[in-house]
Design goal:
This protein has helices at about 15-25, 50-60, 80-95, 110-115, 130-150, and strands at about 1-10, 35-40, 70-80, 100-105, 120-125. The protein has about 160 residues and is of the alpha/beta class. It has one domain: Alpha/beta knot, CATH 3.40.1280. The protein has a five-stranded parallel beta sheet.
Length: about 160
């Protein structure tokens, strides 16, 4: 099953971007993986937070295809250890479906429509991180999970 990460806005910090690209390349050695960047909204100064979430939600949902499993990376989602995430990923990716799609929302979270479309929500931490950090943390954890599943030396308990 193909795995996809959808994010809102480009990664502005070149150091984060380089690290993200490094892990995306590593992930590609294990599974088919795409990173889809939805451009930041234009003229959002006149929009309320709810209007921004709704517009971002429309753009996110346009990327979802029939048969996709949508997983939101959300602060209120289920927390897993790295090993638990590896097991979760193995079960989810072998359960069938077209693509396993993870989404990192915009600065104000997700619209009700995006929450309604999601199969599940996962949290990377109870702490709040910048969206650029979340991208890096997620791709590192996905790489770690794949390495755990393949019996590689990257993860140490």
């Amino acid at each position: 099953m193909k795995t996809v990460l959808i994010v809102i806005g480009k990664t502005a910090d070149r150091n984060f971007a380089a690290s993200i690209d490094d892990y995306v390349g590593r992930i590609g050695h294990y599974i088919p993986f795409d990173l889809i960047v939805i451009p930041d909204l234009k003229n959002n100064r006149n929009m309320t937070f709810d209007q921004q979430k709704a517009k971002e939600g429309e753009l996110l949902l346009k990327e979802i295809q029939p048969g996709d499993t949508l997983v939101l990376l959300d602060e209120a989602g289920k927390e897993l250890t790295s090993r638990q995430f590896a097991s979760w990923f193995e079960r989810r990716s072998s359960a069938g479906g077209k693509r396993l799609v993870f989404v990192i929302g915009g600065p104000y979270g997700f619209s009700p429509d995006v929450y309604a479309a999601a199969a599940e929500r996962l949290s990377l931490s109870r702490m709040t991180f910048s969206h650029q950090m979340v991208r890096l943390i997620f791709v590192e954890q996905l790489y770690r999970a794949l390495n755990i599943l393949s019996g590689g030396p990257y993860h140490h308990d």
